[in-house]
Amino acid sequence: MSSLSATIQEMFNEPGCAKNANKSDAERKKGCTKQLQPGGAAGGCAFDGAKIALQPFTDVAHLVHGPIACEGNSWDNRGAASSGASIWRTGFTTDMNETDIVFGGEKRLYKAIKEIINKYSPSAIFVYQTCVPAMIGDDINAVCKAASQKLGKPVIPVNSPGFVGPKNLGNKLAGEALLEHVIGTQEPDYTTPYDINLIGEYNLSGELWQVKPLLDELGIRILSCISGDGKYREVASSHRARAAMMVCSKAMINVARKMEERYGIPFFEGSFYGIQDSSDSLRQIARLLVERGAPSELIERTEAVIAREEARAWAAIERYKPRFAGKRALLITGGVKSWSVVAALQEAGLELVGTSIKKSTKQDKERIKELMGQDAHMIEDMTPREIYKMLKDAKADIMLSGGKSQFVALKAAMPWLDINQERCHAYMGYVGMVKLVEEIDKALFNPMWEQLRRPVPWEEVAKNRQTKGMAQMDTQAAEVAADPETTRRAKKVCFCKEVDLGTIEDAIRSHGLTSVEAVRQHTNAFGGCCKRRIEDILATMPVSSPPAMLQAAE
Amino acid sequence: MAIVTTPKKACAVNPLKMSQPIGGAFAFMGLRGAMPLLHGSQGCTSFGLTLFVRHFKEAVPLQTTAMSEVATVLGGYDNVEQAILNIYNRAKPEIIGICSTGVTETNGDDVDGYIKLIREQHPQLAKFPLVFVSTPDFKDAFQDGWGKTVACMVEVLVEAPAVGAERDPARVNVLPGCHLTPGDLDELRTILEDFGLKPSFLPDLAGSLDGHIPDEFTPTTIGGIGVDEVAGMGRSSWTIAIGAQMRRAAEAMQAKSGVPFRLFERLCGLIPNDEFIAFLSDISGRPVPAKYRRQRGQLSDAMLDAHFHVGGRKLAIGAEPDLLFDLSSMLHEMGAQVTAAVTTTQSPVLERIGTKEVLIGDLEDLEELARTRNCDLLITHSHGRQAAARLKIPFYRAGFPMFDRIGAGHQLSVGYRGTRDVIFNIANLVIADREENHQPTPDCWRTSRRPLKPGRRSFIDATEGSIA
């Protein structure tokens, strides 16, 4: 058994990886991944990667050895689907506490394994190592070995504590655990010349079942899917397959290559995303199986199925062409999907304004150029701020990406579609690609977008009212400034007869009036509703004796 | 009076609990222009981030010091320094809040010391707001992380008022527990403003995670309470703390600035809200607005209409202590029996829950108790969905996370109006369940397999379950 660091170093030397082959020895030693930047990283850890890769095994109990964060914060968060067992969705963790940290957590781990076997009796238990027990030196390999012997069930250590690296490394460490402890430990009930393995397919949203009917029709049996809707027994006996397809490009390349090395199972790298790719993959499977001894008529049958399915899919997509004319899509995803989806989108009439190549290999980039031309807009690394600006400036009509950049698009009021693992629709195979086009159509033409992009009408109204009101105040202010006295005197007192303040004041002053009755006699004021106001005016005016001249006249 | 017990098992199955650091990070999300930073390996952040995004359906700022195996051995100073500098330069935040994790606590990283050194090394950070909270994963739970973090914010950010400085009689601090939603905070803000009070919420998730659409893209929080406003909280006339988890922060506020506090352990239910409204009327010197007389009437009427359905229900509830206490007390007061209660961590309110026993455990315990004790209503967060499906009983989602339904941020439970909504929603679940699964059949009340002679049918032996 090799140490964890030796295993990791071995993986950095992976000969099956094209990227690796082009590196110098010194570069290889540094490892595959860029050094993580504190304060600037966003991905999952190695433990996360290992769990993602293995959790879709449905009849296995997945036990996380660590404090509550590793499982408590993350369980039941992935959309893989199962055709039967549900134990994989149960969260098991040793929930290490302070005492365990001080005295070691091995005893608790052993007891936890025993409890799970007694209560749930799963086909096997996968035990995941995490940072804290790795730090304090809990030897999970030893505990698993002892538990396996004493309790009579496979207990598999998955040595992939979070701090050894990113998610991608975790995928591979999970593969190592399978190679070392699981694959080849059991024999299948029977074998056929049509047995294949799918490696790195997780059956998210049940998408494997979009392809499986075609394989069933051709008589091709999935001996083991690693790991979507997988069973322990299937993977344990997967070494008897005739051929293998590596689905999620680089995640488990070590598994595919080592199975070829150890058991002589040839593999190819393929994808069921996109119509062309689905056809290529089916052809490759048939070819490999025939090379390994299956009757050659399989190839003809495969071609027939491909022709039928392609015709059906293109016909279904055809009707979207006029609707998609002139619409531009931005594709932010990684690896295979950076080009495998492109063809179908182009066929549906969408213009691709850019595709990300952050996680793509050299071959991936070649394919992109093939599809999108030499001047393809390949986005190495786009910050959320740049994506937001691009969408806000309407340089694209829809964005297709993973969940992480979802809100960047939505908050810019731009259609967005999830094409990564958290999505709730299945997009694999021929039907899947038609579904994807349907979903794009739904997103693009939702009447909601127009409503959201409209300016707020009451903000305009409010603004108008405000300007109007302010203009009025301005004119009034101007008048007052011009002659305050005139404006003051022009104020209406009696609204019924339209008598202003000045007239009343003059009457009071000149006649020495003291009562409302008298004011009424001298002016036109009615003295009804304005009685109060006149009284107020009388109260504020100094009582002066009327000028002598007027007195005399009266 | 309840007895609080802990199970003896070694393996937690279907955890109810979430870890302390993300509770702490959650609190920082209620500050404007904030970037919460977990000091640990990148997975700690990634899991927390996914959880928040699934709950709120919002972009959530959360960063990591990305501790590698080597850094863990050598100590995390360089990682903390680099993380702070990177965030400071790129995201241009107004504050960085740092929470430790299991790895760095096991390691014994002295982050307070690191911060001092970093401030000395980088003069641009000398006065920059940095708050550090110690939140090991292997101790306590989500709610504790929140409570500790708010207390730390008060200690670091609130300025002690000058001696003899005048207090603003209308200004009130509100320290909400993590079980309140942005919708709850907005409701409380409206209530306080109706009494002429000017509330400052610490933290204010309603400003950052209420789902509003910002004009500009920002990598930090898009709203919340500003650091300057927090600094001035010492000049308020009162502090209102909601949930027992906030006692620590309220006491810190009083110690630092002399602002007296009143702790409301609950704000769901008729009596707690009567007390709350009376208190507001008292401190504001204003009569209760007519609006709240009407809302109180509506709640009373809701209770009248719902008690037929809620009364007698055997309730299985799993939640963090303050939410558990709040919801279970309200339903207990509506005549429901709290038959199974499971929580995540110790709290003084637990023994006052209206049941015999409160278990600090997981969802397996809750499911098991609900099954053996024939519970007919399950209340817990979204992770209870599998248990609810197996138990085949109505399931009311409460607490964090709520990832399989939308609108989690606006689920209301405080005030007369919030209580009324909760009562209606729960009663409707019970009604729907009865209509779908418990329609009477000619054999519902038959006591033996053989058909009885006419006129001898007995109702006496009918089991409670069959009537429901």
TrEMBL record, chain A:
Query: BFD-like [2Fe-2S]-binding domain spans which residues?
Result: 493-539
> CDD domains, from UniProt?
Nitrogenase_NifE_I
- Say which domain of life the source belongs to: Bacteria
**Domain (Nitrogenase/oxidoreductase component): residue spans on this chain:** 45-444
For this UniProt record, give its keywords in alphabetical order, as a comma-separated list. Answer: Nitrogen fixation
Please provide an example of a Pfam family that matches this protein in its UniProt record. Answer: Oxidored_nitro
PROSITE patterns associated with the record? NITROGENASE_1_1, NITROGENASE_1_2
Pathway the protein contributes to: Cofactor biosynthesis; Fe-Mo cofactor biosynthesis
| Gene Ontology process terms (BP) | protein-containing complex assembly
Entry's Gene Ontology molecular function annotations: nitrogenase activity
The answer to whether the entry has keyword Acetylation is: no
| Function field | This protein may play a role in the biosynthesis of the prosthetic group of nitrogenase (FeMo cofactor).
Q: What family is it from?
A: Belongs to the NifD/NifK/NifE/NifN family.
Return the protein name: Nitrogenase iron-molybdenum cofactor biosynthesis protein NifE
TrEMBL record, chain B:
Where do the segments described as Disordered lie?
Answer: 438-468
UniProt keyword annotation of Iron-sulfur present: no
Biased composition, Basic residues: where in the chain?
A: 447-456
PROSITE patterns the record matches: NITROGENASE_1_1
User: Start and end of every Nitrogenase/oxidoreductase component domain?
Assistant: 19-430
Molecular function in Gene Ontology: nitrogenase activity
Against InterPro entries, the record matches this protein to:
ChlB/BchB/BchZ, Nase/OxRdtase_comp1, Nase_comp1_CS, Nase_Mo-Fe_CF
What CDD domains does the entry give?
A: Nitrogenase_NifN_1
Q: In which pathway does it act?
A: Cofactor biosynthesis; Fe-Mo cofactor biosynthesis
- List the GO biological process terms: protein-containing complex assembly
Q: Which UniProt keywords apply?
A: Nitrogen fixation
Chaperone among the record's keywords? no
Q: Which SUPFAM superfamilies match?
A: Helical backbone' metal receptor
Q: Name the domain of life this protein comes from.
A: Bacteria
Q: Which family does it belong to?
A: Belongs to the NifD/NifK/NifE/NifN family.
Q: What is this protein called?
A: Nitrogenase iron-molybdenum cofactor biosynthesis protein NifN
Q: Species name for this entry?
A: Bradyrhizobium retamae
